[in-house]
Amino acid sequence: MLAAVTSRLRGPGRAGGRPPALIWGLALLVGSAMLFPPGYLILRASEAGAGGVLEVALDASSLAVLGRSMLLAVLVTALSVTVAVPLAWLTTRTDLPGRKAWTVLAALPLVIPSYVGAFVLVSVLGPRGILQDFLAPLGVERLPSIYGLPGTVLVLVLFTYPYVFLTVRSALGGIDPSLEEAARGLGSSRLSAFFRVTLLQLRPAIAAGALLVALYTLSDFGVVSLLQYDSFTREIYLQYRSAFDRTPAAVLALMLVALVCVVLFLESLTRGRAAYHAGSSGARPHQPVVLGRWKLPALAYCGSVVLLALAAPVGVLVFWLLRGLASGGSLNPVVQTAFNSLQVSAMAAGIAVLAALPVAVLAARYRSRSASLLEGLTYTGFALPGVVLALALVFFGANVFPVLYQTLPLLLFAYVVHFMPQAVGAIRSSLLQARPTIEEAARGLGRSTVGVLATVTVPLAQRGILAGAALVFLTTMKELPATLLLGPTGFNTLATQIWNATSEAFFARAAAPALVLISISALPMYLLVIRERTK
Amino acid sequence: MRSVRPLVFVAFVFVFLLTLGVACGQEATQEEEDGTTEETEETAAGGVASEETDQEEAAASSDDEVLVVYSGRNAELVGPIIDEFIEQSEMDVQVRYGDTAELAATILEEGENSPADIFFAQDAGALGAVAQEGLFQPLPEEILDRVEDRFKSPEGEWVGLSGRARVVAYNTEALSEEELPDSILDYTDPEWEGRIGWPPTNGSFQAFVTALRITEGEDVAREWLEGIQANDPMEYPDNTSTLEAVASGEVDVGFVNHYYLFRSLDEQGEGFGARNQYPEGGDTGAMINVAGAGILETASNPGAAEDFVDYMLSEEAQEYFAEETFEYPMVEGVEVDEDLPPLSEIETPDIDLSNLEDLDGTLQLMRETGVL
Question: B41-163+289-329 architecture in CATH?
Answer without folding.
Answer: 3-Layer(aba) Sandwich (3.40)
